[in-house]
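TA notes, week 10

Several of you asked for a full example with nothing omitted. So below is the full record: structure tokens for the whole chain, then the designed sequence directly under it. When grading your own attempts, check the secondary structure regions first.
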């Protein structure tokens, strides 16, 4: 079962920093580590016969990553005792997922984005059937994607694009009429590689 595999794999150390799309493109344009903004996201997986991955669509009016598909998460606040606390706080703020419903089973290596963030992906298990409510100022929609579909390398499409005037490559994972791309897709790809 994929849940048991997740538990086993995530018990090990997560000490390799993934370098965003720039690893793929070969460009070396990331900010110095001292300049990076620390953030965290929650990769919430439902515990059911067909495990689902929780995702959100961000509202169109946001300053950063407007309209994109993302995990609940955001930058660390001064009061957050750890990145895990950040991920849980943000999940509660964005989709009303209470921390008591999340069993944190591990984390991936920090993911460095081309926009200057160092994002810690926190993996947690949640019960199925929870009532989640989007915070309308940040989240347009909440939805789930079958975890097996998201992790299947056959669904990881590599595309080329332009970022700040430089050519780069990035992953896209399609499900129905939605496209998961950029940092969110790359974190899923990294988890898939870890499990393979």
């Amino acid at each position: 079962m994929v849940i048991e595999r997740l538990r086993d794999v995530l018990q090990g150390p997560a000490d390799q920093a993934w370098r965003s799309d720039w690893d793929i493109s070969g460009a070396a344009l990331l900010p110095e580590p001292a300049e990076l903004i620390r953030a965290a996201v929650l990769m919430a997986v439902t515990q059911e016969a067909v495990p689902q991955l929780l995702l959100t669509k961000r509202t169109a009016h946001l300053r950063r990553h407007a309209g994109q598909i993302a995990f609940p998460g955001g930058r660390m606040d001064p009061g957050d005792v750890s990145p895990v606390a950040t991920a849980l706080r943000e999940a509660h703020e964005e989709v009303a997922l209470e921390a008591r419903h999340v069993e944190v089973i591990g984390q991936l290596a920090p993911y460095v984005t081309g926009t200057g963030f160092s994002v810690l992906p926190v993996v947690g298990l949640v019960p199925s059937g929870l009532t989640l409510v989007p915070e309308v100022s940040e989240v347009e929609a909440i939805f789930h994607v079958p975890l097996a579909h998201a992790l299947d390398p056959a669904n990881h499409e590599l595309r080329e694009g332009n970022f700040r005037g430089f050519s780069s490559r990035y992953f896209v994972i399609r499900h129905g009429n939605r496209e998961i791309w950029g940092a969110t897709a790359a974190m899923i790809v990294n988890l898939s590689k870890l499990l393979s």
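Confidence is low (pLDDT under 50) at residues 15-31. Use that as a sanity check on your answer.
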